[in-house]
Each structure stands twice: as structure tokens, then as C-alpha cells.
Amino acid sequence: MDARTVQVGTTALHVGVTGQGPHVVVLTGGPGCVQYLERDEISPRGHRAWYPEPRGVGRSGGGPHDMAEAIADLEVVRQTVGVRSWIVLGHSWGCDLGVRYAVEHPEAVTAMVGIAGRGPQRDRTWSEAYEAGRAAEPVVDIAWAPEVHASLGESFTEWIHRPGLWRDLAACDVPMHFIAAGDDIRPSWPLAQLAALVPRGRFSTVPGVPHDFWFTHPDVWTSTVTDACTAAGAARD
Question: What sign has the CA pseudo-torsion 105, 44, 49, 3?
């Protein structure tokens, strides 16, 4: 894994990069978590994978920001490293950010692969199921920035309340594959709904794995992201 620094105005962002092949930008969860997927052994095989660390987190400068600034950072990274368009691979919150990125910058997104995301909703039954399962969820120690988490969470709420949200999603022609973790405590029906809504959507489930299966089942994660990114690149052609 090589390390790059991308300057966005006065802010320096850390970006890891590894592999060769079609370009993939990998977005992690939280929001506000460090770039926990930046590991050679779980990178999508046969791809050039880019791992930006969010501003205000870990090795990146800056501080609390909103989703629009997070997407603007991704665009500066893409242009700086000379990528015309890339597959967006997002885990958890990274899936939700990736959806908005694809809607607002379809020219930059070859395809979007979202794993174990939440989806743009605030449903009580979803929250109840999540809270009921939290005690049984495998614990994975991930560093995070509370202030960044809070600011991005507020921005997410603002985004999902926009009157034109569902119209914009339904009009987005970027291929999107939503993948649920079979043993995730987070209900997967929002992902299935998104897959049915977007014109080129697909939904699938990886059985027998929890939310953070990149950590608990790294071999399954690697094969899943490799197959999904390979198929996603072909879907755009």
C-alpha cells in the first residue's frame, strides 16, 4: 500500500493506493471513522484501489464537515490523481455517501457498489431492530472522530429530507449493486428498495456474515468486493 497526500485548499488529505487495473475508490463507514479498509490483503483483486481518509479523521487534516464537502473532497482526489471515472465501493456509511456521490456526479462514477449500508430513511422499525441486536453484534475496535460523525450525521438527515430526493435517485443511470450482510443487525430492506428504485439497480446478500465482515471474514470480503467490482465495471460498458 502506497501513501499519497492530496491537497484540498489548505487541507491535506491522506490517500492510500494499491493494485493495478480499473480504478476503485473505497469509502469507509461511521460516519467519521478512520480508513479501516486500507489493507492490501482485502483490496479488490485486479483493480487500482484508492483509500481516502475523510477530512478531520486519522491522518487527514481538517475537521467537521458536511456531505457536500465530503463529495467535493472525493472529486479533488479523483482529479488530482488523474482518474477519469472510478467505481465507488462503500461500506456502511460509505454506501450512503456513495449513493449521493453517484447521483450528483454520475460522470465521475463508473458504478457504485454499496455493502451493508443503511439507506436514505428514518424508519422506526429499522431503528428498533438495530437497537435490539446491538448487544449481539461482534465488536470491532475502529477509531473515529465524534465531531465529524455528528456533522456528517446532521448533513445526512438534511439530505434525506429533500423533496426531490427520490426523483433524483430514480433518474440516476449509474449502475448500483447493493449487498447486504446476511447476519447484519441492520435490516436490509432499505437496500432492496434502493436497488428496485434506481434504473440499473441490483440487490444481493452474502449469507452468514456480520456487518463488519471485512474484519471477521476477510476472505469472503475480498472475494465479494472483487466479484462485485469486476461485474460493476462490465455493467457500465
Answer: positive
